[in-house]
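Researcher: We're teaching a course module on how sequence relates to structure. For the next exercise, students receive a sequence and then see the predicted structure as tokens, so they can try to spot secondary structure elements on their own. Here is the exercise chain.
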Amino acid sequence: MAVAARRLCHIAFHVPTGQPLAQDLQRFFGFQPLAVREADGWRQLALRSGDAVFLVNEGTGTREPLYGVDPHHAVPSATNLCFDVADAGEAARALEAQGCSVLVCPVSVQDAQGAATYTVVSSPAGNLSLTLLERTDCHGPFLPGFRPLSSKTGQGWISHVDHLTLACTRGSSPTMIRWFHDCLGFHHLPLSPGEDPELGLQVTAGSGQGGLRLTALQTGPCSTVPTLVLAESLPGAASGQDQVEQFLAHNRGPGLQHVGLYTPNIIEATDGVTMAGGRLLTPPKAYYQQPSKESQILAAGHEPKRLALQGILLDGDRGKFLLQVFTKSLFAEDTFFLELIQRQGATGFGQGNIRALWQSVEQAARGQEA
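Model: And here is the predicted structure for the students to work with:
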């Protein structure tokens, strides 16, 4: 029986001492400190923007103190997704019956702000583990054991996590799909009409050699759990090292490649990130020169020159549009980046935008090599 994940609580990262992820999230993307915990050589800082919460675990200890899990990782990366469940103990038993490895048996923690119970299980996505959290009697801003921090008030650029993209080894998507279906109740979400879940949406490179396969999964049409997107490279790339394979090499296996953060005003958010010094990917100039692209942008109520200047991608028709902009890697090891996304009635991810992102990342990679 699949576990019913009710919502995404937070995304956790492991970074070495001195790595500026926490500062960058605040400076460039408007995240605000929420709570902190210091123990056993680790500093754990929870940051929030809207309903999006990131937990940055900074330290060099062998065992992370909150969940007691050995990070087993030499590079900074996203290492844990925490989901809210009704009963952590029942969730652990159900997943163990499905063949999952329970890394941390159900543990109850409490302080003056309340109590919570959690369990941690492995996933098929490399170093990415899953925490299943039961917060029936927890009234603090984050979790028991964390000290609340004062933060600025006011509306941030980001309202919630829109989707999570996992980079997978070639040919592993069907296995991943079955795992997330059987264990967490995710179902196939077609990205194109009549899409075969075994094949997904295939985006070929400009030369027709290599490309990207995307498969989207969701827990239900009315669910607040973000959409899960599986990405794997197609065979045939001339270099043998496209962007997904490069992530797999740098991350030393599958993992969380990027998080899509929803913003109600992508123009304002992009301006804020750029003015703060955040680094964004630049789409190829040909993207904005496509036939009918200008009329498409105007139909969505935007100014073509403005979107081109900011590097914002737009796709859609019939009054339903999608706007996206992508950051460069937040780590020197190229193991994680962010996406800002605004939806004007669109529910998919925009095939034209996916192709443009693919080409822009490949173009940027070739520029770095040169």
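Model: If you want an answer key for the exercise: Residues 4 and 293 are 41 Å apart (CA to CA). The chain has a mean pLDDT of 87.
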